[in-house]
Amino acid sequence: MTAEANQEVATVNPLLKAENFDELIEMAGGSVMRGADLIGDGFSLVQKQSLVGKPMIVIDWEILTDENSGRQFVTVRAIVKDNEPNGKVRFNDGSTGVFAEVQTLEEQGIQAGPIYFGGGLRRSDYVKEGVGDATTFYFAA
Known about the structure:
globular; 23% helix; alpha+beta; 5-stranded mixed beta sheet; two-stranded antiparallel ribbon
């Protein structure tokens, strides 16, 4: 490409002027979309209720912060026995259940799996003052 053509392309998208990874991140203002969020990561997003009592092996988790509320939550990736379509699932939790358990594991120096939970998830229903009926999910050994 000629210098003139390069300049024309860079005018269309100024990010094309970046010379390296760090410069590109800086030019983007730190706001870069995650590929897994756009095209998926091979793990099906499921509701926690569907994992109650189903044996699973947790292979990865990631603690994230919601941009709107500032609250932290965890995305857990696991392989579940006999689950469709391929057993690879992910779910989110920001409660005193799974999220708090993951935080405790990390405090113990455990950063990810594989961790076997023969009971999958356990559901705990209760009444929360000022809210009403509530549910928290926990790992079930």
